[in-house]
Structure formats: C-alpha cells, structure tokens
Amino acid sequence: MRFTHLDEAGHARMVDVTEKSPTVRSATAEAFVACSVDVIAALRDGTVPKGDVLAVARVAGIAAAKKVPDLLPLAHVIGVHAVVVDLEITDDGLAISAQVRTADRTGVEMEALTAVTVAALAVVDMVKGVDRSAEIVHARVTGKSGGRSGDWTR
Per the CATH hierarchy, to which homologous superfamily does domain 23-145 belong? Predict the structure, then answer.
C-alpha cells in the first residue's frame, strides 16, 4: 500500500494536485451530541441560557468548513463554494449534518467533517452550563461525489 501523503523517504508531503482539472465535488458528514432531557427541553423551548444554540452551531460549522487548511497541515486551500449545516433536536440530543460543495481539484470530505465537529463543539460549549455530561458521540463522513474516485456513500 502506498500512502499519498508520504514521499519515498517516508516524510509527510502535500499531494501535488496542480495537473488535476477542477470538477464539481461534494461531501456530507454527520455528528451527534448526546445531552440530558433538561437540555433537550431547553433547546425545544429556546431557553438555553447562552442563547440560540442552533444558530451559533450552524454558523460555527460554516465558518469551520472554510478554515480546514489552517487546521490540517496537509489540506489544500480550495474554494469552498457552498456549505449547509443542519441541526435536528431528537429525544437524545442534537443530530448535525453538513453538505459542502466545490468546483476544485480535490474533494471536500475534511471540510464537511470539520463543519459537523466544530458545530458539535459549539453545541457542547453552549449547553455545558446546563449539562456537563453533554458529549459528542460520533462524527463521520457519510458520502462524497465527484473526482477521480467517483461517488461513495456510507
């Protein structure tokens, strides 16, 4: 197996995508924040003391998707052309999903994953005063389309 982010000597490197043609690409990811029934009730009633958790988490996720090259040292600087972050209150917590789109030389899986994880962190930050046990249960890429490797769905 050959690792694309290692050179012949085993040193980390950024993959050269110069010769690749830009194509339309998208990726989706999801995360889940488990919280207490008190937090779920406060989310549904809009009474979380720190304010509008869903709005803050949505904006945090969108902003994070655009910061991936600052966070991941081997990630490419690409045009993030669309980001949608959705949050759904469930009986157990908050389900977070993101879709990121671009027309560039490399995919946006890390942008989608970063969007949901930072949105989840924002949720935990906003509700920790009510529920110190709030936790991020999972975060994962759920699909991608475009590029040389084609489409993939979890």
Answer: Molybdopterin cofactor biosynthesis C (MoaC) domain (3.30.70.640)
